[in-house]
Amino acid sequence: MFALALWQEPARRLVLARDRMGIKPLYLHRNGRDLHFASELKALFAHPAVPRTLDPVALNLFLRHNYIPTARTLASGIASSAPGCFLEWRDGVERIEPYWQLRFSPKPRTLGDAKAELDHLLRESIREHLVSDVPLGVWLSGGLDSSTITHYAAELFPGTLKTFSVSFSGRSFDESPYFRTVAQHYATDHSEFDLQPEKDDLPAVIERLAHFSDEPSADAGALPVWYLSQMCRRQVTVALSGEGADELFGGYITYLADRYAGFARPPRSAPRAGSPACCR
What we know:
By secondary structure, the protein is of the alpha/beta class.
């Protein structure tokens, strides 16, 4: 992931680019012939020409979808740079051009061929991500994504792999039996942190998390990840995680909620409670 800015002084030409999938933030504010940019909203707000005004359209999108599926941000007049594109800015004239696009070219194949190709791609991807000149580990939740990464990493990593987890003792969403099973199976050097809301100072952490997040996050897992990062930083500098893999490998069961909710919704033609048709 990356966000970069290149300035050519003789040509008075600025080029901004963002990584292919838009992992690294890159925010833009256009003001006539001026362009302000930064990787954090807080940096843009430091400029007096950048307003601090809430965008009601973006807020509506966030409340509906739990994220903002456009280039908008919650700050009016500030947009996110398009992923996989570069932006050229010269004397107030803007040009945007894609440098990468995800292409799908499905080929007829057997299930066995697809499994072999997936195995190869996962192994090579994790092999590349294990290249590091600093201590490295894996965030392990016990789910399909992080367990898969642990499987390949334990095979490819020279030495004993370090894994890190967060547990929630006594709660229905505690996943400790799963990640402990995986850690034991692959004989990792395992560490875990038991998050207890009644003991840990959650309000203070939420405030710090909001400060660093810039925009609200509907991901409830961000809070455990904060503690997980704090714990594993004492031992490693880089950590592999399964963030984003749930969508590739089937998603959470909650993704089915909208499909099932459709059966419970009344037809559009049905009168709503409290409407005149219901009160006749």
